[in-house]
Amino acid sequence: MLTASTILEGFAMKRSILSVSVVVVVLGLAGFAMGTRLHAQEAMPQLAGSVWTGTENRDGIAGRLMLGFNANGKVFICDRISNPNDVKTFIVGSWTQNGHEVEIRLRDAVYRGRINGRIFSGSAQFTEGQQQTWAFTVVFVPAPNAR
Predict the structure, then answer these.
(1) What's the CATH class of domain 51-141?
(2) 77 φ/ψ angles, rounded to the nearest 5 degrees
């Protein structure tokens, strides 16, 4: 037989189950958001000692672009004009990083871009002479023994 007290007891139990469910969902979403944020931070490779390869589109021509970042703030660039087998033909510059933002300074150009996971993309422009701007995109290349 249904009485007022059994209905109230059932309502109280459903309410506590609903409260627990809401708490679990909220905590789960917070944990997911935190995990996603941590995963995104972990996905950004350390620039010092890393190599990135891709392309830049200068003068309407897509060409090779390889960036090698040293821990001492130097960057070595192998572009479409450089000989990938002769490091003496590489362009040497300096780099700085502020979070995901990276700036590379060369004698006559500056590259500015953003790292998003394992992709670094942005734009570059000459600092002297012609005022040309071009786009670049490079991808992180893990070391052969890294997994």
Answers:
(1) mainly beta
(2) -115, 130
